[in-house]
Design goal:
By secondary structure, this protein is of the alpha+beta class. Helices cover about 35% and strands about 25% of the residues. The chain has a single domain, classed as 3-Layer(aba) Sandwich (Aminopeptidase), CATH 3.40.630.30.
Length: about 170
């Protein structure tokens, strides 16, 4: 079952994000990695900044989480994670499909350029990489991240985002 997360899910969201983010360790630039990957204070700030978390739950256990955040004329998919022990069972895809169905606005997703599995996942779900030039503009417009993270990230967009190569 997919449902909106409650305040009482905060610890579970924190646990799942930091469990699943272990996949980034040794993959993303070392200067971007820290323990925990997302501290509780940062997670609270993300929620205060408008990230609305949804979860996939089976038999009362939350197995995956994904956030969506409205920003001006788009929505951002934020912090998409599934428990390490049960990855590759379609949970992330179900969450992504559900969140995409909640809006007619374009959806953008930022991820690490070296996280090839994440990029492949989004491409499998009909998101496309935007150009490096467009990525830099979008990250500065819709995200609040350090310049180093801009350098080491990519953006994927759904079909509602205009394809700049067609302009």
């Amino acid at each position: 079952m997919i449902r909106q997360c409650y305040e009482s899910d905060f610890s579970t969201i924190f646990e799942i994000i930091n469990d699943a983010a272990q996949a980034y360790k040794g993959v993303i630039p070392a200067d971007r990695w820290h323990e925990p990957y997302m501290p509780k204070s940062e997670l609270r700030q993300q929620i205060m900044d408008g990230v609305l978390f949804w979860c996939y739950e089976e038999e009362g256990e939350v197995l995956g989480v994904m956030g969506i955040q409205p920003k001006e004329d788009v929505y951002l998919i934020r912090h998409a994670y599934v428990r390490t022990a049960i990855r590759n069972k379609g949970i992330g895809g179900k969450l992504l499909k559900h969140l995409c169905a909640t809006t007619d606005k374009p959806i953008l997703i930022g991820t690490w350029a070296d996280a090839s599995w994440a990029i492949s996942f989004y491409q499998k779900h009909e998101f496309r990489l935007v150009s490096a030039e467009e990525k830099n503009l979008l990250l500065k417009k819709y995200w609040s991240i350090p310049e180093r993270q801009v350098e080491t990230s990519v953006i994927l967009a759904n079909d509602k985002w205009p394809d700049s190569s067609q302009k």
